[in-house]
Amino acid sequence: MDSIKIKKIKFYILLHIVTLFFSCKAISIYAKPPITVIAEGLFNPTGLAEMPDKGLLIAEEGTSKDDFSGGISLLTSKGDLGRLISGISSRRESGDFPSTSLISIAPDGMSIYTGTFGLGHLWELKIEKYNILPALPFKPESLNTFMLDHEGEKLINPFDIAFDKSGLPVITDSFKNALATTNSEGKLIFSHHFGFLEDPKNPNNKIEAVPTGIIRIKDEFFVTLFGGCPYPSGSGKLVAVDKFNNQRTVVENLNLPIDIALDQNGRILLLEYAKYDSKYPCFSEKKQHREISRPNYGFRRETGRLSRLNKKGELQTILNNLSLPSSMIAYSKGGILITEMDGGRLLHVQTDSSNEVDNLIPGNNSLSERKNQNLSQVKSITNIDSSLRKIIKINNLNPFPGMHLKEENSQLSKLGAELFFDPILSGDKSLSCATCHHPIFAMTDGRVLPIGVGGVGLGVERFFGKEISVSAEYRNTVNEKISNPFIGRLIPRNSQTIINSHLLRTQFWDGRVENKISGDPVKTLEPEVNKLGLKDPLAAQVLFPIVSTAEMAGISFGPKVSHLVRDMVVKRLEENEYYTKRFKEIFGKSKIDLLQVSSSIAAFERSLIFNESPWDHYINGNKNALTKKQKKGALLFYGAIKPSVNCSSCHGGDMMTDFDFHNLLVPQIGPGKGGGTTGREDYGRSHVTFDFRDQYKFRTPSLRNVSLTGPYFHNGAYPTLEKVIRHHADMMIHSLNYDPSVNIPATYYSSVMPTRLERQLHSLAPELKEGMELTENEIEQLVSFLKALTDPNASDLRHLIPEKVPSGLELDPLPKRLKAKIEMKTEQNTIISGPVSSTKSGWHFKDVTKEVGLNFVHGAFANEIHADQPLMVSGGLCWIDFNNDGWQDLYLVNSHTEQEIEFWEENGGLPRNQLYQNNQGKFIDVSHSSKSDISLQGNGCIAADFNNDQRLDIFITGEGKDALLWNNGDGTFTEGAKEAGLLNTVRGGPDKKGDWHSAAAAADLNGDGLIDLFIGGYVNRFHIVHNPLDDFPMNHYGIGDQLFLNQGHDISGKIKFRNVTEEVGLKNDERTLGAIFSDLDNDGDLDLYIANDGQPNRLFAYETAENNTGFVYIDTFETSDTADRGSGMGVASGDWDNDGFNDLVVTNWDIELNAIYRNQTADSGSLNFKYSTYNIGLHEFGNNHTGWGVHFADLDHDTDLDLLIVNGHTPIFNKEMAAENVNLYLNLDAEGNPKKFKLLKDTVGLSEIGPILSRGSALADYDNDGDLDLAIGVNGGRARLLQNVNPPGNWIVLEMEGFLPGTVVVVKLPDGKELKREWHTGSSYLSSEDPRFHFGLGYHDLITSIEIKNTNGKSFFLNNISVNNIIRVDNNGTILAKH
Predict the structure, then answer these.
(1) Is 982 strand, coil or helix?
(2) Which residues, other chains included, contact 1039 with Cβ-Cβ below 8 Å and sequence gap of 6+?
(3) Could you give phi then psi for residue 223, rounded to 5 degrees?
């Protein structure tokens, strides 16, 4: 590799940042006005105040978990953001209502006032410097107290503050429902009490006022009354209180008003927090409802509002759909600043032409601070050993550090080892400490991210079992087995080795257990642990994994209060005769306690000190301990050859670490730690310090024995030391261009979040901001030196593995392969920009829904949005020529939520499916006359000829029951699912009513000429995971897919199906949303690809077998590289790269990338794919869009397959906000740029069509003009039909006489190019498409040949076919008609 070209890199980075920044500002999160996100990841920001120098103070409530995470952050006018005050207690008044950290500046500008719930007074901090953050935040004990309790009265929950004309504070106390101030003697008094409010829907129901925001206008104080539990809609008010305590109503019918301010023109601004979901009871009971993982259980996101009171006293909306907004101010430089608790965001709302907030954005000036130093400067080294001796002396390096502290083979360490390997410490008795810190992996687990509870096996071979056994503590049962609720639940961070961990002052990647000064008590985030007074961070570290539900506590112990879990662990040990005896022998006490347990395990971990490496022997005087390459690597490492390469600036000292925390722009992988609006961000150290400055920072690991402990970084992002060094050399470039397919296993692909530089630059490690210029040879030298840090004694620790453990529980089985290798192939991803082709200027899409007569409206959420998550994913449709007239008709599936059944019954009946007959391009609703207008909670549909009568039938998936509509041939249908044996009888749920079926696909699988049926199982809405760890769908168990073989007509003449799911190997109780039959290995039979939501996608290879079915499906999960664990929704198959093999694409959730897989079967000899999302010319493919329906199709008629995806957010909080644009990705093969796509929107009319809340989608040539048009199912809205207008090239359409899904047609053009298409019945998302074969031909006006390959083994050719025709062909290759 050539040396990195620094100037080009800087230009590229600057271009990327500028693009991101201006696109962020140009795209309004909401329609109007424009919004800029200034900061994200604050800890429940609840208050704002502007400093005299235009900086900002931001009150942060903290985590609300009875800790000390609250505080005040300062955002200086130069864009530096961090904690000014920290360590304020954080707990909520009633478990749900925000208990603010009040913030204000005194009228004289010289003091800051703050307070919080339960404090009983305010704090005061004198302002000395406005624009400088302190190195360490102020602590509460260093602040002055103010407004102390008086005569038994005290502040309980001070929410906001204003000042009277004399400068005295007036405070809203939301707990006391009163205004507080001070008298002339400075004593606290409550000057006004607010009476009860009325529930607008139930006047007899009186609710507490709960005063929140306050401002003074002349002699009156204007106060927002939030309204207390049960938070009924419209109960909030704005009132005014004069100096005589007279109260008047200014505005009523508000939804939880939380703040008030005056804009720059003196007009009143009101901020409403949210609407409340009445299904959630108030206060502590709400904790039993785990559907929302954040603390604001019933407050609905994206329902907040900013409004202005005009001169007429009317409330005018400025901005809707804010997500739990909590405070606001009118900024003196223009616009309005708002804090949102959801995601911890600080927003600027531009309300006029001024927008002077650029300097406020943290990190916005980071690139301009680069020093542009000469990175290629090289120093001449004449004597390598002499130079290294000098380095050793200057750095005061000592050999064999910490070896004198190594615990010998003591009785205490032996007991610790027994505990370490014994699953008795885990709630479900299924794993031990060693599961994630195993000797065969140098006391790590060798994985990118660990699988904790619910896993089976070790290392990369560890997988999620289908069931778990729970212990007696769960439900007083023994060895009860339940469905595994942890499937897909990865531990968010990589398992660090515990080798040498005793020599480190901090434990865990974020340092949440630390002991900076030896001998001082260990500090943790848990007060109960701090009370133990531990002085050994290793002993304190032991206490945390055992209380984590996903790591060790499991279903049996978690989630319970941490100290109770630890007590249960100790109780278990006391019930074991062996452990009782051993603890008494060692500690001399008959009763086991927690400190004994932690000190025992810590003693074992102290025995794992290994620092006798070649480097130590070199330091000790043996100059032959290192090779020449290793010595040169050491010189590079310590900056002796290139000053720009000085690894020791962070990895210095004897332990090769600075014990500090740094942001290295490591790509975000995995479930994250709950940060940001997505909940997927891992903010690292700031989860411990709660300081914005520490976002994305992680502990500098010791490099001792580092060659043994990959994969590397806090989330295992890189598999090799070489890749780690390359990332350090230019972390911006490598983070932006991170390709998971060459770094991590397939199961993690969709969990990679695109790097958002604009959000991370503020905390970027300054030591690496400039980058490092390294040659290939220098990288090899550094790797060689790092390997010299390995103690040979640490290379094989298998002797530590016991044969058995005292509890008698099973040990983890050793893996078959002690070390798995990921095959890495580097492929450059060139981002495509600029115009594609001027010849396509007339091509566009047009919304023709109304003009063609389609008026179908999906019935979801007719009145309001309910927390009906399965309904939110519905909205399928299918094209069907039900009357065989050559025009594609359209069938749309309807649904409804049970909460609105009464509404529908009062308004004409439940929503029904609708069938629209295509009358030469216009549609007529024939739903009722055709008897196809059934009512059910439907999902999707397919059109297939199940009884070989040359008429297409309709199969519909739904909740509780599916439906099969037999086509009678006279324009009517008859429902017959039950008679056909297709009852919705899923294995997964205890109540069939709650079973949701999703995808369906059909094909003749066993060659008997009858169409068989696959039905995807999603969830049972009533089969909920006990104590779920995540939101929907992870809080629901998946249900089984089903495969039915068509048995033909029975003696009564009825078609019957037989369930062969288990016979053919498809028994998987997972959450299927998408499925497709496709011949992916070109062997003439149909393989099956299944997209699962939150569980690994599955590719099943078809193999013939001597059984009752004639075939089985083999799961290629581990070998095909398609087992992404994203939110798998829609799926499509097509040969987009024209290599003769069909490729795959899967759509995912908006915080994941869509997955595109290139078929590599021709090279490997068996089903194999390459994850190519990062290699198709697109940056962030699908990010910020939730993809559903997806299609490979030649939409511009240039011979190659383009990619079309419809999008729409879920969960739905607001239909308008959940709508997203349709995305068309143009295949650039015909333009001379093979294997690349480019996103088109503006040039083809899709931006003009605008956002749609899309779900299912299906392509068809509805107007028979030779191009493919798009029908879209809209959740809770009107279905859409987008007409494809004027694609520039020629075309051919082939229609088969029979019904033969799986048929392949190959068109050969005069230039030798071959175009392949395959017939799919059931694809995209909840849909089926026009079964005819559509080919774009570019400017070819003649087709050399057409080859047709049926699944029944027949193959025939058509020659010299003219273009721009629809050709109908029978099963023998005879052309029946052209038109």
Answers:
(1) coil
(2) 986, 987, 988, 989, 995, 996, 1017, 1018, 1019, 1020, 1023, 1069, 1071
(3) -130, 135
What integer pLDDT is reported at residue 688 of this predicted model?
96
Nearest to 1033 by CA among 1021, 1048, 1047: 1021
CB 660 within 8 Å of CB 650 = yes
Phi/psi for 938 (5° steps) reads -90, 160
- Token readout for 172 is 């809203």
Beta strand 81-90 with 67-75 is: antiparallel
Listed in sequence order, the residues at least 6 apart from 266 whose beta carbon sits closer than 8 Å to its beta carbon are none
List, as one string, the DSSP characters of 512-551.
Answer: -EE-SSTTSPPB-S-HHHHTTT---HHHHHTTTGGG-III
Q: pLDDT at position 1153, please?
A: 87
E-assigned strands of 661-814? 661-662, 698-699
- The DSSP element (H or E) to which 38 belongs, if any, is strand 35-39
pLDDT tens for 833-875 read 433 343 455 899 999 999 999 999 999 998 888 888 889 999 9
Q: What is the pLDDT of residue 20?
A: 38
What whole-number distance in Å separates Cα of residue 1375 and Cα of residue 1355?
Answer: 15
Q: In the chain, what is the greatest distance between 2 CA atoms, to the nearest angstrom?
A: 104
The tally of CA atoms less than 13 A away on the side-chain side of residue 970 is 4
Q: Give the global pTM.
A: 0.85
Which pLDDT belongs to residue 487? 83
Q: Count how many residues are written for the chain.
A: 1379
Residue position matching structure tokens 């779920």? 1028
HSE of 747 in the Cβ direction (CA atoms, 13 Å)? 22
Whole-number Cα distances in Å, 166 to 105, 147, 216, 1180 = 15, 16, 12, 56
Please report how many Cα atoms fall inside a 13 Å half-sphere around the Cα of residue 439, on the Cβ side. Answer: 18
CB 396 within 8 Å of CB 527: no
Q: Are 869 and 1030 within 8 A, CB to CB?
A: no
Q: What is the mean pLDDT of residues 49-67?
A: 91
Q: How far is CA 888 from the centre of its chain?
A: 38
The answer to whether 24 and 53 have CB atoms below 8 angstroms apart is no
pLDDT of residue 366: 64
Beta bridge partners of 953: 944
Q: What is the mean pLDDT of residues 3-11?
A: 37
Is residue 1072 within 8 A of residue 995, CB to CB? The reply is no
Helix (H) or strand (E) holding 112: strand 111-115
Q: 253 by DSSP, 3-state: which?
A: strand
- Enclosing H/E stretch for 956: strand 953-958
Calpha distance 491→1221 (Å, rounded): 34
| Rg (alpha carbons) of the chain, rounded to whole number | 33
What average pLDDT does the segment 677-690 reach?
92
Residue 235, both tokens: 């109960």
Q: Identify the sign of the CA torsion 958, 961, 962, 965.
A: negative
- 10 Å Cβ neighbour count for 73? 27
Share of the chain above pLDDT 90, in %: 67
Confidence check: pLDDT of 29 > 50: no
Q: Are 273 and 257 in contact (CB under 8 A)?
A: yes
Give the chain's end-to-end CA distance (angstroms, integer): 58
The answer to whether residues 1010 and 948 touch, using CB atoms and an 8 Å cutoff, is yes
- Do the Cβ atoms of 566 and 531 come closer than 8 Å? no
Helix (H) or strand (E) holding 385: helix 384-394
Q: Within a 13 Å sphere around the CA of 1327, how many CA atoms are in the beta-carbon half?
A: 35
Residue 249, classed as helix, strand or coil, is strand
What pLDDT is stored for residue 1024 in this prediction?
Answer: 76
Strand partners for 171: 161, 180
DSSP-derived 3-state class of residue 1301: coil
Q: What share of the chain is helix, strand, coil (3-state, %, to 5)?
A: 20, 30, 50
* H-run or E-run covering 1257: strand 1254-1260
Answer yes or no: is pLDDT of 266 > 80: yes
